[in-house]
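User: I'm preparing a small set of examples for a lab meeting where we compare how different chains pack in three dimensions. I only have the primary sequence for this one, and I'd like the structure in token form so I can line it up with the others. Please keep the answer compact; I'll paste it straight into my notes.
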Amino acid sequence: MPQPAPYTAWKITCGSPEEAQQLECWLSGRIDLNRTMIDTVRTAPAGIEHVQAVPHRLGDYFVAIRVSREPGANAGSFRLRFELRSDAGRFWRDLMVNLLQEIEAAPQSPSVVLDSKGEPHTAPSAG
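Assistant: Understood. Below is the structure token output for the 127-residue chain.
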């Protein structure tokens, strides 16, 4: 049986249910796994600056990025869950943080709080 992907979930809270709904709609295109985010890398070998744009596709780092609502929870909030690929490089954290910063800068001025983290289960070692 395949193990569940490690994940990090965030609670996003807006001032009203309407604002949360608007933010969810806006967010749907931002968390598409085919979205490519650009990282600008600056180096200065021999004192000469080089700038390189490095593309990062969300689907190369995450199995899924899901929005969900808890039954009976505050209607002005929802969860955003990042499910990590087993072969994701270390840059996944930067991508997640960049997405969370985009959310915090949204007109709804939501609060973003870590909700939970899950690690894959490992089989106990024979001993």
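A couple of notes for your slides: Residues 17 and 75 are 5 Å apart (CA to CA). Residues 121-127 have pLDDT under 50 and may be disordered.

User: Perfect, thanks.
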